[in-house]
Amino acid sequence: MSSDLKENFAFRPGRRPAGPGTQPPAPRAAAEAGAGAPARNTNRPGPTALAAKVRTMAPSMTRSMQRVAEAVASDPAGCAQLTVTGLAERTGTSEATVVRTSRLLGYPGYRDLRLALAGLAAQQESGAAPAVTADIVVDDPIADVVAKLALDEQQTLADTAAGLDVAQVEAAVAAMATARRIDVYGVGASGLVSQDLAQKLLRIGMVAHSHADPHLAVTNAVQLRAGDVAVAITHSGRTVDVIEPLRVAFDQGATTIAITGRPDGEVAQYADHVLTTSTARESELRPAAMSSRTSQLLVVDCLFIGVAQRTYETAAPALSASYEALAHRHSPRPRTR
User: Fold this and answer.
1) Of 258, 273, 264, which Cα lies nearest the Cα of 105?
2) Where is this region: Disordered (predicted)?
3) Beta bridge partners of 275
4) What domains does the chain contain, in order, with CATH numbers?
5) Residue 109, CA atoms < 13 Å, CB-side half-sphere
6) For residue range 37-49, what is the model confidence (pLDDT) as tens digits?
């Protein structure tokens, strides 16, 4: 077995068939094997989405595919001029690896990737492409920290929006809007995001619970059934405390949703719908938890607004009632001596 294949993530058998309009996550091994299977998102990424896709997928690629991805990301104009043989020689890989990388990025073949690279190069020349921010260093003045973080947050949000599979978002919203109950799992920074989603849903009258305790999460997941929804939030896609309750919910027949920066991670095995977040660069002073939280919150807000739209007749009165119930807590109290 080649070293590339050893690095591949093997998906376990036994997934239940996907429902109408649902695209099950493609195993990474199949994508790299060049079997001709389409990427998860059947819509070819545009130039902006290509840049986001490279940043998101590169960390989980094999070493040879990373070299191809890094080359097209760093020099789209130059790579757009190369044949498949030329890019393989430039990156020290094979033509097959170039084609596999193209497919993993969402293109049927290298020709389609070249067209997207030409479009990305044109954007960069016109100044339309967002700048890549420099890492924050320990002696940066606070004004530079503010500017760098603001630019990086913008890039993270743009990458997430460009890379989201809208069909998957719509399917997830449809399942949540009619759910009897919604459980949300997350730990650490993702746990804060899971709490945010649950409290938003509660305020529009949905039955939603956030579970940060892994034992309680599994205990509650056992009670789920068809018609319920379970949402797992994990940037890495391999957080055991999040994957385990999602697996239980999946086995119980609930509709399962994964919000993750690694669509080829283990969490996707148990997800009917996978919503991919951006994978921003890390630095010593800016851990992944910061950028992942930003992109996760965008996805959470999209889900919430989508559910609120679909349930507006009940959501609007519920939201008004929650505002009224809390209004007195926001009124200033008379000052006493």
Assistant:
1) 264
2) 1-48
3) 259
4) 26-131 (1.10.10.10), 162-325 (3.40.50.10490)
5) 4
6) 333 444 566 666 6
